[in-house]
Amino acid sequence: MAYRVAMEDGLAAAYARRMSPDAPRTPYADPAAGAAVKAADRAHVFHSWSAQGLIDPLAVAGAEGAYFWDYDGNRYLDFTSGLVFTNIGYQHPVVVAAIQEQAGKLVTFAPAFAVEARSEAARLIAERTPGDLDKIFFTNGGAEAVENAVRMARLHTGRHKVLSAYRSYHGGTATAINLTGDPRRWASDNGSAGVVRFWAPFLYRSPFHAGSEAEECARALQHLEDTLAFEGPATVAAVVLETIPGTAGIMTPPPGYLAGVREICDRYGIVFVLDEVMAGFGRTGKWFAADHHDVVPDLMTFAKGVNSGYVPLGGVAISAEIAATFETRPYPGGLTYSGHPLACAAAVATIKVMEEEKTVESAAHLGEHVLGPGLRELAGRHPSVGEVRGLGAFWALELVRDRETREPLVPYNATGEANAPMAAFGAACRKNGLWPFINMNRTHVVPACNITEAEAKEGLAALDTALSVADEYTV
């Protein structure tokens, strides 16, 4: 109770600061400082997913809300939310204040102890997860959450195989990268025996030659049944799905699909794992994307939006049945920083902010009334847009060379000259003050969930200009 009272007092104080006319920070120009930051980065930082000599990372001077800026004073509207994690924007004063307060009280402590911030974060998360997912195992991020969910499923069932979809991304650690379906897996595709992939539904590029959502759903479920039959259901520990695949393309599953997977898993005693690392915590206009489908998995992974990425945090929400497996049997897993007090304090504050500011409702409104209609209007005027799909603050534009054939604007996993059309599109976005999320032949529209309508329309206007560049590559 004392913690919640202090939290509410902190909210009030932070709101007062936020309303102050001096609160927003603004871009400033300091090229010399930017050059020093860039030089140190290039000398010593080894960047992920990159050929180190071919990248030119932007030196960031600051960020506030939905924007960030460089040392030359250029400001960008961030349509990536970092890596789709700043669900409440950058530098929210409530969360910053909560981190500062926690640092002054108890900056860190080992995970085997009961700590107030950790307990409160777990309670608030469990209150929002669907069904009986009431036990929370904390990790440092989404990949570790997936690693531990798979470990739990294998130990719970005594089986070893795990099924995952081709169009997916589950993280960069050993098991998570092997579960991943996209090309980032290829270089490390030897680390997790027993991973089997299947096709999940995606009507626009249907692997099942379906002509409707109902056909796509039925054929995708039959394909999963067939895959299980040939793999041996009694050997399969888990089916792991992103509730809505994120980096792979934001493909919302057709009605009935997730419920059908739930029924198949129940029939064969298979653990159903939903990966909500990207889709969770308001991104889709619900606390979790599973809420759109009235489906309760056995395990649910989360990270990113749980505390808007302010301090690394992820976790697994665990059903009562699986938690009971480890009631008297030790769970053989853990992390030094599991449930770190600073990260958990940030989660408590973030969830409080989302409740107080109605961030989930804002994301739903944004998708239904601003982003959805705006993106569809752009698609009507730009031949490079093959499909618009998404909900909430979670959208993708599929860019094509030919709408009739649906040929992608660039080949699958294109690099170098083959990727020139998407590179030109991205450069046009940035020239107009928009930082885009680009993956293969798609641009994802994934701003902060609390972005204003005016900010969203500013981004749509910049997209409109950039899509004219993409149109030049259509047939």
Kindly describe this structure:
The chain contains 14 helices and 16 strands. The model is unreliable at 1-7 and 10-24 (pLDDT under 50). The longest helix has 23 residues, at 359-381. The radius of gyration is 22 Å and the shape is globular. α1 (2-19) crosses α4 (93-105), α4 runs antiparallel to α11 and α8 packs parallel to α9. The protein is an alpha/beta fold and 475 residues long. The strands form 3 sheets. A 7-stranded mixed sheet has the order 4-10-9-8-7-5-6, sandwiched between helices. Strands 11, 12, 13, 15 and 16 form a 5-stranded antiparallel sheet that branches. Strands 1-2-3-14 form a 4-stranded mixed sheet.
Question: Mind telling me the C-alpha Rg?
Answer: 22 Å
Helix content: 40-55%
Unreliable stretches covering 5 or more consecutive residues: 1-7, 10-24
Ends distance = 64 Å
SS strand fraction: 15-25%
In terms of structural class, how would the helical and strand content be classed? Answer: alpha/beta
Overall mean pLDDT score? 93
Q: How would you describe the shape?
A: globular
Strand element count: 16
